[in-house]
Structures are given as structure tokens and as C-alpha cells.
TrEMBL record:
GO MF terms, alphabetically ordered: DNA binding
GO terms for biological process, alphabetical: negative regulation of DNA-templated transcription
Upper taxonomic lineage: Bacteria, Pseudomonadati, Pseudomonadota, Alphaproteobacteria, Sphingomonadales
Protein name: CopY family transcriptional regulator
Family in the record: Belongs to the BlaI transcriptional regulatory family.
Superkingdom of the organism of origin: Bacteria
Keywords from the named record: DNA-binding, Transcription, Transcription regulation
Pfam families assigned: Penicillinase_R (PF03965)
Length: 124
């Protein structure tokens, strides 16, 4: 469902995922080239109507949060990224991501090694 959203709705949804939750003003502040306040509220209302966003009232302000789990959204976005820019190769994408990182700590290296070991066992 996320892939089929118009660009601005997807951008708003992804911002909410990264924030965890936020007001329309917080979302607007995180948008590149933000539209008007009312346009942001309209985008949030559309996402709520589609069942992707919920809101609660805090001090007379709506606080919005994504209904879908951020992990699910991240996985879908990552799959789209790998397909679009790395010809479907997770290894190429991982190599590119590691090239962006100036230095990994021991815990991150161990996590990557476990993932590599698991992939190697599954390939055997």
C-alpha cells in the first residue's frame, strides 16, 4: 500500500515513521519544501482515511502516529531501493551502505557477521 501512495503522502508517512509520532507542525518542519499548514493537515487526514495513520489529542492538538509498524515500512522501502538502484542485489546494496559508514563499532561488525554466517548456511 505504501508504494501506491502519492509522493507527498508517502513523504509525510515516512516522516511520521522516523519521528514515531508528531503534530502537523512537526511533520511540516521535517518536510523538504513544506506546503502550508492546512495542506499538511489534509495529507495527514488522507493517510488516516486510508488507515495508515491514527491520531490522539494532546493539549488540544492532534498527535499523529503511523499505524503500520516502522519495521514493515522500512523493509518495503528497502526492497524498493534494492530493486531500483541495485538490480535486486542485496549484496550490492549492503556493500554500498557499508561504504557510506566511516567506521563500524564491534557490535555492528558482529551483527553483520552473524547475518553473513546465516546467509552462508542457507545457501549450502
Amino acid at each position: 500500500m505504501i508504494e501506491s501512495l502519492p509522493r507527498r503522502e508517502r513523504e509525510v508517512f515516512e516522516i511520521l515513521c522516523s519521528l514515531g509520532e508528531g503534530t502537523a507542525a512537526a511533520v511540516r518542519g521535517a518536510l523538504a519544501e513544506p506546503p502550508s499548514d492546512s495542506a499538511v493537515r489534509t495529507l495527514l487526514s488522507r493517510l488516516a482515511a486510508k488507515g495508515l495513520v491514527a491520531h490522539r489529542t494532546v493539549n488540544q492538538a492532534y498527535v499523529y502516529a503511523p499505524v503500520a509498524q516502522a519495521g514493515e515500512v522500512a523493509e518495503t522501502a528497502l526492497q524498493r531501493l534494492v530493486q531500483t538502484f541495485f538490480q535486486g542485489s542485496a549484496a550490492q546494496a549492503a556493500t554500498a551502505l557499508l561504504g557510506m559508514e566511516p567506521g563500524l563499532d564491534a557490535q555492528e561488525i558482529d551483527m553483520l557477521q552473524r547475518a553473513i554466517d546465516k546467509a552462508r548456511k542457507e545457501a549450502e
